[in-house]
Amino acid sequence: MKHYVKLVRPYLIWSVLMIVIPLILIVIYSVTTGGNTLVNIQFTLSNFKKFAEPIYLQVFMKSLQIGVITVLFCFLFGYILAYKICKFSERAQSFMILLVTIPMWINTLLRTYAWMSILSDNGIVNTILTKLGLDPMTFMYTDFAVIVGMVSDFLPFMVIPIYTSLSKIDHSLIEAAHDLGANNVQTFFKVTFKLSLPGVVNGIMMTFLLSVSTFVIPKLLGGGQYMLIGNLIETQFISVGNWNFGSAISMILAVVILIAITIMRRMDPDDAEED
Amino acid sequence: MHNKIIELKHLTKNFGEQQVLKGIDLNIYENEFLTLLGPSGCGKTTTLRIIAGFEEPSGGEVLFNGVDISKVPAYKREVNTVFQKYALFPFLNVYDNVAFGLKIKKKSKSFIDEKVKKTLKLVGLEGFDKRNVTLLSGGQQQRVAIARALVNEPKVLLLDEPLGALDAKLRKEMQSELKKIQKEVGITFIFVTHDQEEALSMSDTVVVMNEGIIQQIGSPVDIYNEPENRFVAGFIGESNIIPDAVMKRDLLVSFDGFDFDCVDKGFKENEEVEVVLRPEDIDIVDVENSKIKGKVKSIIFKGVHYEIVVETQYRDYLIHTTDYFETGLHVGLSFGPEDIHVMYKM
Amino acid sequence: MRKKHGHRKLGAGLYIALCFLFLYLPILVTMIFSFNSSKSLTKFEGFSLMWYERLFSDSEIMEAVYVSLSVALLATLISTILGTITAIGLSKSRKLLKEVIVNINNVPIMNPDIVTAIGLMILFSSMKIEKGYLTMLLAHIAFCTPYVITSVYPKVRSLDPSIANAAMDLGATPFQALTKVILPMIKEGIFAGVLLAFTMSFDDFVISYFVTGNGVKNISIIVYNMTKRTNPTINALSTIVIVVIMVTLVIVNVVPAINKKKNKKKMALELENMNHI
């Protein structure tokens, strides 16, 4: 069946041009100076050294912190949600999973914009608080607002893979655990949770990737001064115009995510076997 | 018999380092039911795929009516294939599957309709036109696959282990059905199988292959009774193979310390040969009346016959008989000159 | 025992409802306030379609809708064709080439959007391609095609390897085998790819934001620029986008389910018929 082998050629060329070369360009930019043209470039590591300055390191640490907190909340709420959904009839399950899926397809920007009006000083939450006789609170432009926006936005990416793993579990394994004397709690931790690990790993990878790299949510809900790695890259490319430094930050971001993925893959029993 | 329709001339095929066909020479005749028989990996399917045009040979020629077709693409060849797992098009119903080839050839609607109906009748699927092929039983899918190939009126039909997926009873049914269809349409069938019983019961000619080499070509009776070497003898049914016999002269062979009359000749004097004795050709007789003596080691009832192993001084013999013998009984073994099959040593 | 079970189910239902409220609150708020008769985003002061009227008379927004739609349609068309033929070729390729392409293909899927975006931005500027509609379209094809390949490739791989041979054996040329046999058999994968590509492209903000220029804006970029001040026109626009995507998703999810049911019925009928023969 050699007839169809040639069909990959257009994409081979296309993907080298549109995927591989851009990556190489980012690497080149990150280790050079000489501005945004490649005419008089000079090798340097100063872009990376610059990142070690306290202000940038702080941004980096803050991104990791917000990312980890978001992942934790997504995991906590998402696991319970997926687990509870599994208790329903098959029809109800597929309906609820469709409901979880729909927001994934709707632009982050639109949903985040809506959170702005919900959380603003005279927004819906504060209106309700006032009606209940409580003092209004400031939500906007805080870590809280950013995390709420991220969790709401990324929760489906945690629920779907966990649900997929959970729904695949052979019920006789649960029965076998009970039969061997494990109570509900023991069965959950020793059997169910272990079997759902591939989904957990996938969900954590997805939500971590999304939350450390976003710049829309922190910009809209955290305000103009709120800086995470994504915002830093955006400013370097759009307002400051230092593409070399921007590329270096992007590389660091890509490497951090790569490391996180590698660590998570190790924890996934299915993947570990393949090594 | 008839005219040659396909000639394979010193066909070789390499997959990377591995040579799966090591020089196949074979003539296939019109109206012949020919079976390529051998264990998996022997090259039988590769040979078939080369004839169909799915593989190009690494060397040698494929002649079709005297013309080399080894570079002709599959879709221009006058052969059609019944695939191992049928390869029916799941999104088409029975009728449209069968009509596929004729539609590609842009035949008229009435022509197609008539041909398809006729062919479906031939394979016993009248009235199945609108059925979903994925919901048919294995045997029915098989019939659709045969109809889909035959409707194009190929000169040669290639069948790649087509009965492999069926259960034993259905297999038997389809064997006689296939033979009947072949007689009716009067074209050449090339059939690939690893099942020796299937090969012997259906074919005009059996080609036994192993490790990319043809071991023997012959009628089922020849192959069974006169295996040319130890591989063929071993592959075609259970056998007693005596690897250390010596051909004293024409019509006289010696093994187990005795000389035996036989019907084979043309060997050198005192040439080392191998001898095959079919289990059903050996009789168990009184100890006094025989050259080879031993005692019954085991006896198993096999439904129609008993399978007995007799332990002798030189080796164990496997015997099929309808009589019962007590384990441990001392017996003699007897066979006639025509039961001894002498083969060249491998 | 039974009572306890009932409580537990109620608890589960309540938890699920709260989660859905959390997921859908922003969507609901957007939709409700798009019909508000005042500029307030907190008090609903009466039903009105004024924001929709403003939306349709705003030429900048309409221009962005046109850009979003046309880029999404073109990118979907091109990436579906490119992705499908690649997936088919991939299944027949040598192992090394296959691994190389699959790995390259995973890069845009696993990389953060922002990294893909700046990579393309640098590429276009170093190739001296003027940023605008064309660069946006090229970028969209670049990030949509990998998703098409990942949805079509498994379908191609699960095909019986003899199926294309069977078609050619019956006289179909390789091209006919492709269009008459392979494509019908992988159409579900292609359809999923189309849907994915279209929504990814239509929804995209990050990549478009970095690779566009010369005033070419899609819906997301307009929304991003407008967030500085409250503007319920955005709600009206969002509502339309949300409704379009929801309806599409529901159709895509519900229609196959209905078809399946129909098929099941048909299958049962056929089985019954078969027993009569």
Topology of helices and strands:
The complex is a heterotrimer of chains A (275), B (346) and C (277).
Chain A: H1 9-30, E1 32-33, E2 42-43, H2 46-51, H3 54-85, H4 90-105, H5 108-119, H6 124-131, H7 143-168, H8 171-179, H9 184-213, H10 216-222, H11 229-240, H12 243-267, H13 269-274
Antiparallel strand pairs in A: 1-2
Chain B: E1 4-15, E2 18-29, E3 33-37, H1 44-52, E4 59-64, E5 67-68, E6 79-82, H2 94-104, H3 109-122, H4 138-150, E7 156-160, H5 168-185, E8 188-193, H6 196-202, E9 205-210, E10 213-218, H7 220-225, H8 230-235, E11 240-249, E12 252-255, E13 258-261, E14 271-277, E15 283-285, E16 292-301, E17 306-312, E18 316-321, E19 330-334, E20 341-344
Parallel strand pairs in B: 3-8, 3-9, 6-7, 7-8
Antiparallel strand pairs in B: 1-2, 1-4, 4-5, 9-10, 11-12, 11-14, 12-13, 14-20, 15-19, 16-17, 16-19, 17-18
Helix pairs in contact in B: 2-3, 2-4, 3-4
Chain C: H1 2-33, H2 50-57, H3 59-91, H4 95-110, H5 113-126, H6 133-157, H7 162-169, H8 174-185, H9 187-203, H10 206-211, H11 219-226, H12 232-276
Helix pairs in contact in C: 1-12, 2-12, 3-6, 3-9, 3-11, 4-6, 6-9, 7-8
3D structure, described in words:
The complex is a heterotrimer of chains A (275), B (346) and C (277). Chain A is an all-alpha fold and 275 residues long. Chain A has one domain (49-270): Orthogonal Bundle (MetI-like fold), CATH 1.10.3720. Chain A has helices at 9-30, 46-51, 54-85, 90-105, 108-119, 124-131, 143-168, 171-179, 184-213, 216-222, 229-240, 243-267, 269-274, and strands at 32-33, 42-43. Chain B is elongated, with a radius of gyration of 24 Å. In chain B, the strands form four sheets. Chain B has a six-stranded mixed β-sheet with strand order 6-7-8-3-9-10, with helices on both faces. Chain B has a five-stranded antiparallel β-sheet with strand order 13-12-11-14-20. In chain B, strands 15-19-16-17-18 form a five-stranded antiparallel β-sheet, with no helix packed on it. In chain B, helix 2 (94-104) packs across helix 3 (109-122), helix 2 packs parallel to helix 4 and helix 3 crosses helix 4 (138-150). The relative contact order of chain B is 0.12. Chain B has 346 residues and is of the alpha+beta class. Chain C has helices at 2-33, 50-57, 59-91, 95-110, 113-126, 133-157, 162-169, 174-185, 187-203, 206-211, 219-226, 232-276. Chain C has a single domain (59-264), classed as MetI-like (MetI-like fold), CATH 1.10.3720. The mean pLDDT of chain C is 86. Helix content of chain C is 81%, strand content 0%. The chains are: A mainly alpha (275), B alpha+beta (346), C mainly alpha (277). At the B-C interface, strand 6 and helix 2 of B face helix 7, helix 8 and helix 12 of C.
